[in-house]
Design a protein that fits this description.
The complex is a heterotrimer of chains A (about 375), B (about 325) and C (about 500).
Chain A: H1 2-5, H2 9-34, H3 39-51, H4 54-79, H5 87-105, H6 111-140, H7 144-167, H8 189-195, H9 208-225, H10 227-237, H11 239-244, H12 249-265, H13 267-276, H14 287-297, H15 302-325, H16 332-347, H17 349-363
Helix pairs in contact in A: 2-16, 2-17, 3-4, 3-15, 4-9, 4-12, 4-14, 4-15, 5-6, 5-7, 5-12, 5-13, 5-14, 6-7, 6-12, 9-10, 9-15, 10-12, 14-15, 14-16, 16-17
Chain B: H1 3-32, H2 40-58, H3 61-85, H4 90-113, H5 133-139, H6 145-152, H7 158-176, H8 178-188, H9 190-195, H10 200-226, H11 238-248, H12 253-273, E1 277-278, E2 282-283, H13 286-303
Antiparallel strand pairs in B: 1-2
Chain C: E1 9-18, E2 21-31, E3 36-40, H1 47-54, E4 62-67, E5 70-72, H2 77-82, E6 85-88, H3 100-105, H4 114-132, H5 147-160, E7 165-169, H6 177-192, E8 196-201, H7 204-210, E9 213-218, E10 221-227, H8 233-241, E11 264-272, E12 278-287, E13 291-296, H9 303-311, E14 318-323, E15 326-329, H10 336-342, E16 344-347, H11 351-355, H12 362-365, E17 377-378, E18 381-382, H13 384-397, H14 414-426, E19 432-436, H15 444-459, E20 463-467, H16 471-477, E21 480-485, E22 488-494, H17 500-507
Parallel strand pairs in C: 3-8, 3-9, 6-7, 7-8, 13-20, 13-21, 16-19, 19-20
Antiparallel strand pairs in C: 1-2, 1-4, 4-5, 9-10, 11-12, 11-14, 14-15, 17-18, 21-22
The chains are: A mainly alpha (about 375), B mainly alpha (about 325), C alpha/beta (about 500).
């Protein structure tokens, strides 16, 4: 802790993540160069692809939406002292929950009743999928990291089984469910902005973005202004002090995982209700793991998470564009970058903090005292 | 179940358990020294890729093995840099290694070989062959025992035997040597070891080095013995199963071996249960069988591990 | 007594700083061969740091070290051991899961193959046990050894590695007076055999009884160094603190009057810990309003468990409790929340892990345990403004520095943290106050303030229970002293009848 503590607070919160990102980019750039691409060319194409057009921006924000959900999920769990790697599985279950309601009640209910029900159902499914490992950790001592990883595999098996055997539309060869009725669709950005007479290009961006931002605000107030949030943070920071205060750590561990699962589950609303309009395989597409990177970069604070999500959304969108233009470049480069971000901001931040503190002291002497 | 089926399942189980055994032993050494190792999956994956790439490029089994072990050792030492030399979070570091491995192996695979991330199929000379085939033929005529022992125990490739032989080797290392004594001590009370004049860092890095070698062997096995090439994400969670087996084995070599064999057998049985009709249930879905090892791991963790005692200093950075 | 020849140890001009804290400033220390040398000072005076530098745990920033006349460079514990320096730490450096023999062997195994390495080690240890009189069962797991045995093992470990200079850090902190006497006998024996012993302690009476020479440190510097026959307890105390110390009871003759009916009555408390060991055996206890009851005893005899049970942190296996009008029995025990509700406050022994959330800012730690009270919380939402104002008032009332409510709790010094905790607990005007180790890690000025606050609580009619491993503190504060030994209360003595000897016997389980 000593190296990090030597940094003044503003450097610890804002500068260090930027430095970590820069190094992660450098490392990835190195790999890009190694495989014979031009890193600067790739980077420029990436930025252009992400922000250079309304369509690109739209896609960036659409990706960011899912990352906000999973990033918030990881952050809430972190504040309770837990590492929730199960975002993938919880998001899968969230989509499943939403889809089941859509398929079952879609023909019967109108939109204003369907969408909240789908959301609730998805949240409930995700909540349970996270609460079980949470319960096992709190009451049985089973390490939540391992159980959530196992639950990820179980979730994907479950999804495959249901799609192949139960939910597949009749006579359909593709492994996906029947299409939802119109009442089960979330409005897309294009539709919403059309009301304001703004012509916005078609894209997967939909109203879930507003839901994600609302969640970020809600998580902020929950963690730092509510009684439950106070107790949750106490449990995560000092279980002994929490017990002394009469707070039951076990209850709050389960509660934190449940909230975490519910947040991750909302990825289902984005993908299943907002974009595809049906349940497909692989709709989560790694958002759970990106959420870890986003939470670490965003220092587990909702504001940081939103910013980091936009950053990663840009990387994914830009990466897709670059994959079109630059031969040999694939989306896996972004996965790799994500890994570097987790490595440098998560595990190696201490390695970087000491030289950074020295540098700061040399450059700005009065900034040395925190 | 007739004897041929039994033999086949046993043989399969032994082979499927091999990478688990190697990874679990790797994790054992690391965790006994106090360093959590979530990154077994990523190291095995990267080692597999290295073996596939090096094997395809050089046509030499030896170089493929060296490449695999070298890569895994480097990743282990990177983990060490973050968590042993500095107080980084050990779980986060492991997760980072997994994600980096998943992405980087595909990136390099596409860049170097172009087949969507897959390495070219290795020719037979490079792959590790079955041993003692003649012995298998020889005892085949024996009723019942012949096929069972033949297919279950003999006729495997060299790496399988090496892996199982490493279990008593690791046991000996841990409980009968000076290094092993120090390793066990450092996982329980690193301060004590430091004031006794032994460097905790050097011990942990040594453990991580051995961890890398074993993960390298595990990855090599996948590409040189099991299939013939690397394909993206081919480890499919085996690293995590090895970790679960290690925990189930209470961080001791022999119980861990039995846990790995159990998982291997489950995997083997799963493949054969496909399409099987169970009374009252109907056809067992493929996915249920595939999910069984993971489900079993959760059940085991929920039921038993609550009482297993991890090395006391596991996961805590030395300050 | 002292041997002729170069001094065993000569440290000159040693400086050591940790960030902004200057732990050792220009320290000179000379220890003659074959002597028992006392190194005394308050918590934070720099004595432990100096010995850590000597043992190679932290390299000095500057200065020189000469061992038996030879200048040496000590960068690692290995180097110190090579010079013949051995150290017995305050918190034992032993691996519980290994045997005593394996613990001694570690780091100095004569052979890579363990079975072959064990034989010569065992033989040498037998020789050492003969010559020093220290006996330890070599093949038992350390987890099964008693505290006294573990300390003996630590000394054997140092001697096995060839220590000619033995450093002991607060060795009697975990011993009864009788066990301490046994240790002193061993130390005198070692001195007679030519070893040099450095004793780090803050117990002046030990130094006077045992040592030949004493060095006093204060605020990182050496402030006094003299042969013991030229020193006095008062003089040493003054040197340690820098001014005249008044820690004695202001008024021994008038204990507070007791009310007839107790506000807290515990009967038949029994508890086993997670490993099944009996920690509390049939405890009966009464507290009256307007009195301070002290619990004396060596740490580890059940005091911590008793505090946990009385405060609701743990439930006993058997027994009953009647406190402030409410009854509790073993199956339906008190919990910390309801304890606070009925007016029972608890200042825990472990400040870092229990009393405060170190990462929380002071204004959040200041409501810990009371966060759901109406003054801090309305319908599930915290009232940040009210919390901050309350914290500022607490800091003002108890002189907590710096007066920054937004500063992280861990950034306050030990004394200020303890004052904040007291402010929080006393601020709720409890009727019963449980206090564990009130002045551990607290500087001298804060100690006097804290004693004053506890006495003020007594005057106001609160029933105060103080647990402390410092007998002097118990004697300074209590109206009545209970002594615990092996989970039982072995004595209930009014303050006027207390003497260290009598209490020492009770602490060792003998006498009544």
């Amino acid at each position: 802790m000593s190296a990090r503590a030597a940094l003044p607070r503003w450097a610890d919160v804002a500068l260090l993540p930027v430095v970590c990102l820069a190094i992660a980019l450098l490392a990835s750039g190195g790999v890009v160069a190694l495989v014979g691409q031009n890193p600067t060319q790739v980077l420029v194409a990436l930025i252009d692809g992400a922000f250079g057009s309304a369509r690109g921006l739209s896609y960036t924000l659409y990706y960011a939406t899912s990352f906000i959900f999973t990033g918030l999920a990881v952050a809430v769990a972190f504040h309770a002292g837990l590492f929730n790697i199960g975002g993938e599985g919880q998001a899968t279950l969230g989509g499943l929950g939403a889809a089941l309601v859509a398929l079952w009640l879609g023909p019967v209910l109108p939109g204003w009743a369907m969408l909240p029900l789908m959301l609730l159902s998805g949240m409930l499914f995700g909540m349970v999928w996270a609460a079980v490992p949470g319960y096992l950790q709190a009451y049985r001592g089973s390490h939540v990291v391992i159980t959530t990883i196992m639950f990820n595999f179980l979730a994907s098996s479950l999804l495959v089984y249901l799609l192949v055997n139960q939910l597949r539309a009749h006579g359909n060869v593709a492994i996906e469910s029947a299409a939802f009725t119109a009442s089960a669709h979330l409005w897309s950005a294009r539709e919403i902005l059309a009301f304001a007479a703004v012509d916005w290009p078609g894209s997967p961006l939909n109203a879930s973005l507003l839901l994600a931002l609302a969640c970020a605000v809600a998580v902020y107030f929950f963690l730092w202004h509510s009684l439950s949030g106070y107790r949750l943070r106490a449990v995560g920071s000092s279980p002994g002090a929490a017990a002394y205060a009469g707070i039951d750590p076990r209850r709050h561990v389960v509660q934190a995982m449940a909230i975490s699962g519910a947040l991750a589950a909302m990825v289902g609303m984005n993908e299943v209700a907002g974009v595809s309009g049906k349940l497909v395989l692989e709709f989560v597409a790694g958002a759970g793991f990106t959420g870890i990177a986003v939470a670490l970069m965003g220092r587990n604070h909702p504001l940081g998470i939103v910013l980091a999500s936009i950053l990663f959304g840009a990387l994914f969108q830009g990466g897709a564009e670059v994959a079109f233009e630059v031969p040999g470049f694939s989306r896996d480069m972004v996965v790799m970058l994500q890994g570097f971000v987790v490595l440098f901001s998560g595990a190696m931040s201490y390695v970087l903090a000491a030289p950074l503190a020295r540098l700061l002291r040399a450059v700005v002497p009065e900034a040395a005292h925190g | 179940m007739d004897e041929l089926m039994l033999a086949s399942v046993l043989g399969s189980g032994v082979r499927l358990a091999t990478p688990l055994v190697l990874c679990a032993l790797a994790g054992l050494l690391s965790e006994r020294s106090g360093v959590v190792d979530i990154g077994l999956e990523g190291k095995m994956l990267f080692a597999a890729f290295a073996a596939g790439a090096a094997g395809a490029a050089t046509g030499s089994t030896a170089l493929a093995l060296v490449a695999a072990m070298g890569v895994a050792v480097m990743l282990s030492w990177l983990h060490g840099l973050a968590c042993v030399s500095y107080p980084g979070d050990q779980v986060v570091s492991g997760v980072a290694i997994n994600i980096i491995a998943a992405g980087l192996t595909v990136v390099l695979g596409i860049a170097w070989f172009g087949q969507g991330g897959q390495t070219p199929a290795l020719p037979v000379e490079v792959r590790i062959q079955a041993h003692w085939e003649s012995a298998v033929q020889a005892i085949a005529p024996l009723p019942w025992l012949g096929p069972v022992i033949g297919q279950a125990l003999l006729g495997h490739n060299l790496l399988v035997y090496v892996a199982y032989a490493l279990v008593p080797v690791v046991w000996f290392l841990l409980y009968r040597t000076r290094f092993g004594l120090r390793l066990r001590a450092v996982g329980e009370n690193p301060h004590m070891v430091e004031v006794a004049g032994v460097s905790v860092r050097r011990l942990r890095f040594a453990a991580l080095g051995l961890n890398g070698l074993l993960c390298g062997l595990a990855g090599s096995y996948l590409v040189l013995a099991q299939s013939a090439s690397f394909s993206p994400h081919m480890t499919a969670g085996r690293g995590f199963m090895a970790l679960a087996a290690l925990i189930f084995g209470r961080w001791m070599p022999w119980p861990t071996l039995w846990a790995c064999l159990l998982f291997g057998l489950l995997d083997a049985v799963a493949m054969r249960l496909q399409g099987l009709e169970l009374p009252g249930v109907g056809t067992v879905p493929v996915q249920a069988i595939q999910a069984l090892p993971y489900l079993l791991t959760v059940v085991l963790l929920a039921g038993f591990v609550g009482r297993a005692v991890a090395p006391a200093a596991l996961g805590k950075p030395l300050d | 007594m002292a041997k002729a020849g170069p001094p065993a140890l000569c440290m000159a001009g040693v400086h050591k700083r940790f960030g902004d804290v200057r732990a050792n400033v220009d320290v000179h220390l000379t220890v003659a061969q074959g002597t028992l040398h006392g190194l005394i000072g308050e918590n934070g005076a720099g004595k432990s740091t100096l010995m850590s530098v000597l043992y190679g745990l932290h390299p000095a920033d500057s200065g020189s070290i000469a061992v038996f006349g030879q200048t040496v460079r000590i960068a690692h514990a290995d180097d110190a051991i090579g010079c013949g320096i051995g150290m017995v730490h305050q918190h034992f450096m032993l691996v519980d899961t290994l045997s005593a023999l394996e613990n001694v062997m570690l780091g100095a195994e004569p052979h890579w193959y363990l079975p072959q390495a064990a034989a010569p080690v065992r033989q040498r240890l037998q020789e050492l046990m003969e010559s020093t009189g220290l006996r330890v069962p070599l093949d038992s797991a350390v987890a099964d050894l008693s505290v006294g045995d573990r300390q003996r093992l630590e000394i054997l470990k140092a001697l096995y590695r060839g220590a000619r200079i033995l450093i002991l850090d607060e060795p009697t902190a975990v011993l009864t007076p009788q066990e301490a006497d046994q240790l002193f006998t061993v130390l005198r024996q070692l001195r007679a055999q030519g070893s040099t012993v450095i004793l780090i302690t803050h117990k002046l009476k030990e130094v006077m009884a045992l040592c030949d020479q004493v060095t006093v440190m204060r605020a990182g510097r050496v402030v006094a160094d003299m042969p013991v026959h030229e020193a006095s307890v008062e003089g040493l105390a003054q040197a340690m603190v820098g001014r005249k110390v008044q820690l004695e009871r202001p008024d021994l003759s008038a204990p507070a009057p007791q009310q007839a009916s107790p506000v807290l009555q515990a009967s038949g408390l029994e508890m086993r810990d997670a490993a099944g060991v009996l920690r509390l055996c049939g405890i009966d206890l009464q507290l009256h309003a307007g009195e301070i009851v002290g619990i004396a005893g060596v740490s580890g005899n059940g005091q911590s468990e008793l505090l946990d049970v009385l405060s609701g942190l743990a439930a006993p296996d058997a027994g009953a409790l009647q406190v402030l009008g409410k009854r509790f029995a073993a199956g339906t025990w008190l919990d910390p929340f309801s304890a606070r509700d009925i007016g029972l406050a608890h200042v825990p022994e472990d400040r870092h892990a229990r009393a405060l959330v170190m990462d929380f800012p002071a204004w959040e730690s200041a409501v810990l345990g009371y966060e759901s009270l109406m003054q801090y919380c309305r319908r599930g939402w915290m009232r940040a403004g009210a919390m901050r104002r309350a914290t500022e008032a607490m800091m003002e009332r108890f002189d907590v520095r710096p007066r920054k409510a937004t500063l992280a709790s861990r950034k306050f010094s030990g004394g200020n943290q303890q004052k904040l905790v007291l402010a929080r607990e006393l601020g709720q005007n409890p009727r019963v106050l449980l206090v564990g180790q009130p002045t551990r890690g607290v500087d001298i000025g804060a100690i006097e303030f804290i004693y004053g606050q506890l006495r003020a609580m007594r005057e106001a009619g609160c029933a105060v229970l103080v647990v402390s491993s410092e007998l002097d503190e118990i004697l300074a504060l209590s109206d009545r002293v209970l002594v615990m030994y092996h989970g039982r209360i072995t004595g209930d003595v009014a303050i006027a009848d207390c003497s260290p000897e009598r209490l020492g016997l009770l602490m060792a389980g003998a006498g009544a």
